[in-house]
Design goal:
single chain; 4 strands; 699 residues; 29 helices; transport; Proton_antipo_N
């Protein structure tokens, strides 16, 4: 059963990929056309090119029609599109059903499974088996990944209906799912790294799915390159683990971990604590994969991919990999308090930073994307203060309402004929009431409305941060507490801003509004299921993730600390504080966008530098462009023109050939074809010989 959960998506990928290849050959029997031969590109279903943002933000927009991007009707669907959809979606639903069975057996039935697949690497001291490790931590991730992926597959049947590359799209989705499942079931660091790189590759393919669109290509490359920075640290961390333990399997590493506490290791000519440097290097990988502060810049640009891809990346795969990795290696992190302080600081900073940027964004998908970045920061705060199960609890609940918000946004985009700018929307609650209701549920869960899933998990993180500070366990705990409380208010504000500007008020684009319509049934069913999960994933699982049953539920699959007990004794004021922040954010958003909609424009004018600072995402893209991109481009150009062109080619092959050509040209010039030239040359030769003989005779 456990092998089926992992390998059914791989089977779906292989079948869909075969269909895509055959279909592509059928469409181009004479070979593929030359680049640029087609007059139009494969237009995106949901992407748009917006004009430059106005300094007046919410009330001034430069609008570009999206009809020009809607080219799918001009191209026939690829051969085998329907079989690819049906096969991959069916296999994912089977995998999802098996995952829930595994969750019940492993999580609540006390079962723990390790299935060996095949020997992998045997080289000296390094011995690696390919094996599936299914404990409670894995079972939680199996449920999250397969459930969201199955619903995204179903949703995509309706969403991608006009796209000619559907077989390829569904193949990539299944590959993405398989890579994530391989990651979460890994029994050793090497296998985990294969899954880690697999999700990176699949994300590159999906973000750049519309490969004829330059912005999609740029976003895919950006995601791939930024993640390589984090992966470099992650790989160094794996090497360091092997150096100090001579093993890469988790059981051996965890058994040796207590003996490594306080043990020094040489690093950059210094002697540093082994576990501290190992955990920091591993966390560097998590920062890239989970889009944490400083390595976050790829995540908003990932919106260039189709909306179902955004839902899968943000809710179940890719970005959750870093959180899972820290939880899996929690026995190591728990012995490195300095590393935990860094995790807390980075997570808290990310939570607040992303929330501030989300305040002024106008693209509906980017607003939800920054909420993902912020919520991931919450999860790392939980990990940093030692509440690992609470961090996994928020990952579990977040998957449902974040997938709901992204897929709901896709439904809005379809209704508005591919418009994404919320300034061009308004009044849609009357046109798409079901989507509106589902977006309300997702927003309530994201903001932490009482009894929703987000209420239980997010509040538990804030309480854990306060308890950790009160107990003196983590020097950055108070910073984490303050940032998460502030982010709760900001999250509520920008979430309700999205709802009010999209679904309330008067329409700002009458043409699109008049033709707005509900999405097809395959898109609405996943919304309903995810809405139910956004409510039911909270209270029923609270005791297992954050209550008195945590130790019995996880059974050593992650570290359980005393913070879980202390967080239940925080003052009532602290427990109610997140709800107060949620209400405050809602109230301010209601005043700004319902009661007095002129206030945001006035504030944008009055505080224009602050507004532009947030609108331009703290200028991180510009900063990185100045510090890294331009120098790298200059260096590359210098090495290309100077090193390769002038030095290597100039002195090497090109230089030698040029000299030969010069000599040849000079010799050729002697062969003029005129008789008197040859006679004159003969005369000179005879004179030279005569002179030589005369002078020789005189001697």
């Amino acid at each position: 059963m456990y092998q089926a959960i992992v390998f059914l998506p791989l089977l779906g990928f292989l079948i869909a990929a075969a269909i895509a290849i055959v279909g592509a050959r059928a469409q181009h029997p004479g070979g593929y056309p030359e680049p640029g031969a087609e007059d139009h590109a494969h237009g995106p279903v949901d992407e748009s090119r917006h004009g430059a943002p106005s300094p007046h933000g919410d009330h001034a927009a430069v609008h570009v029609s999206h009809d020009e991007h809607d080219h799918h009707a001009a191209e026939p669907a690829a051969w085998g599109s329907r079989p690819a959809e049906v096969v991959t979606t069916t296999l994912l639903f089977v995998s999802m059903a098996l995952s829930w069975i595994a969750f019940a057996r492993v999580g609540f039935g006390g079962l723990e499974v390790r299935e060996a697949i095949a020997p992998f690497i045997f080289s000296g001291e390094l011995k690696v088996d390919w094996a599936l490790r299914v404990d409670t931590l894995t079972a939680v991730m199996l449920v999250v990944v397969t459930t969201v992926s199955a619903l995204v597959h179903l949703y995509s049947i309706g969403y991608m209906v006009d796209d000619p590359g559907r077989p390829r799209f569904f193949a990539y989705l299944s590959l993405f799912t398989f890579a994530m499942l391989m990651l979460v079931t890994a029994d050793n660091l090497v296998q985990l790294f294969f899954g880690w790189e697999g999700v990176g590759l699949a994300s590159y393919l999906l973000i750049g799915f519309w490969y004829k669109k330059p912005s999609a290509n740029a976003a895919a490359i950006k995601a791939f390159v930024v993640n390589r920075v984090g992966d470099f640290g992650f790989l160094l961390g794996i090497f360091a683990v092997f150096v100090v333990t001579a093993a890469v399997d988790f059981d051996t590493i965890f058994a040796q971990a207590p003996a490594l506490a306080g043990k020094p290791i040489p690093f950059l000519s210094w002697e540093v604590d082994a576990l501290t440097v190992i955990c920091l290097l591993l966390f560097m990988g998590a920062m890239g994969k989970s889009a944490q502060f400083l390595l976050h810049t790829w995540l908003p640009d990932a919106m260039e991919g189709p909306t179902p891809v955004s839902a899968l990346i943000h809710a179940a795969t890719m970005v959750t990999a870093g959180v899972f990795m820290v939880a899996r290696l929690s026995p190591l992190f728990e012995l490195a308090p300095t590393a935990l302080a860094v995790v807390t600081f980075v997570g808290a900073t990310t939570a607040l930073f992303a929330a501030t940027v989300g305040l002024v964004q106008n693209d509906i998908k980017r607003i939800v994307a920054y909420s993902t970045c912020s919520q991931l920061g919450y999860m790392f705060v939980a990990m940093g203060v030692g509440a690992y199960s609470v961090g996994m609890y928020h990952l579990f609940t977040h998957a449902f309402f974040k997938a709901l918000l992204f897929l709901g946004s896709g439904s809005v985009i379809v209704a508005m004929h591919h418009e994404q700018d919320i300034r061009m929307m308004g009044g849609l609650s009357r046109k798409i009431p079901f989507t509106y209701a589902m977006m309300l549920v997702g927003t309530l869960a994201l903001t932490g409305f009482p009894l929703t899933a987000g209420y239980f998990s997010k509040d538990a993180i804030i309480e854990a941060a306060f308890a950790s500070d009160h107990a003196g366990h983590n020097p950055m705990a108070f910073y984490g507490f303050v940032c998460t409380v502030a982010a709760a208010a900001l999250t509520s504000f920008y979430s309700w801003r999205l709802v009010f500007k999209t679904f309330h008020g008067q329409p700002h684009d009458r043409h699109h509004y008049d033709h707005a319509h509900e999405s097809p049934l395959p898109m609405l069913i996943p919304l309903g299921v995810l809405a139910a999960g956004s409510i039911l994933a909270g209270l029923p699982f609270y005791d297992a993730f954050a209550g008195n049953s945590v130790a019995a539920f996880f059974r050593g699959s992650l570290s359980v600390t005393g913070i879980l007990e202390e967080m239940h004794h925080v003052p009532a004021m602290i427990a109610y504080l997140p709800t107060v922040m949620m209400v405050a954010g809602f109230a301010v958003a209601w005043v700004f966008y319902i009661k007095s909609p002129g206030i945001p424009r006035a504030l944008a004018r009055t505080f224009k530098p602050v507004y532009l600072f947030l609108l331009n995402k703290w200028y991180f893209d510009e900063l990185y462009d100045r510090i890294f991109v331009r120098p790298a481009m200059w260096l590359g150009r210098a090495l290309w023109k100077g090193g390769d062109g002038r030095l290597i080619d100039g002195l090497g092959p090109d230089g030698v050939s040029a000299r030969v050509l010069d000599v040849t040209r000079n010799v050729v010039r002697l062969q003029t074809g005129y008789l008197y030239h040859y006679a004159f040359a003969m005369l000179i030769g005879v004179a030279a010989l005569a002179t030589w003989f005369i002078l020789g005779g005189l001697r």
